[in-house]
Write a structure and sequence with these properties.
The complex is a heterodimer of chains A (about 120) and B (about 110). Chain A is mostly beta strands and about 120 residues long. Chain A is built from no helices and 11 strands. Chain B is globular. The chains are: A mainly beta (about 120), B mainly beta (about 110).
Chain lengths: ~120, ~110
Amino acid sequence: GAGVSQSPRYKVAKRGQDVALRCDPISGHVSLFWYQQALGQGPEFLTYFQNEAQLDKSGLPSDRFFAERPEGSVSTLKIQRTQQEDSAVYLCASSLPRGGPAETQYFGPGTRLLVL
Amino acid sequence: GENVEQHPSTLSVQEGDSAVIKCTYSDSASNYFPWYKQELGKRPQLIIDIRSNVGEKKDQRIAVTLNKTAKHFSLHITETQPEDSAVYFCAASILTGGGNKLTFGTGTQLKVEL
């Protein structure tokens, strides 16, 4: 079946620009996570949704970062007034299919953001 | 919060040899430990995972061992092949009724040489 998809795959933004990154989780997955992966590093947790509820946003680095999942499926990560340190790959993952193993997180291909 | 350390950062082995990657974690409440393989420019893919009620798990050429007392776990790949070359990440989390955020190690670049 279809896996987690993300768009755009690549985004170049000028410093100060706003960007929006989209995640389409696996159909039926209740949990959705966003991670930030800097070059040569492991992914770092940003935020987590269960259905439409944002239950944990402790990893968001500043109030310039905002995420939403209004209908409990597609999610958008928005970064306002982008800075060069925001350059990274943004990964989305989904998990908890009904009746399936709760813990396995399936990752999307990521959006590579470059802020100039 | 949880802290995961991973060693080595790079590992080069000859084809057919074994490779071992080690991780330690800090939060004794962590009870789920997945390993992900990430090829250059690709998504992380789960290769094996283990829960804290099990000491060892094996899947063909891949095995993971867990020592809860010492708070460390290891990935073992036997009979390595060139296609095993990638970056491997360990992670730790606490399973709850809902989601479980993963804390990742810094990764190990594995190179399998012919």
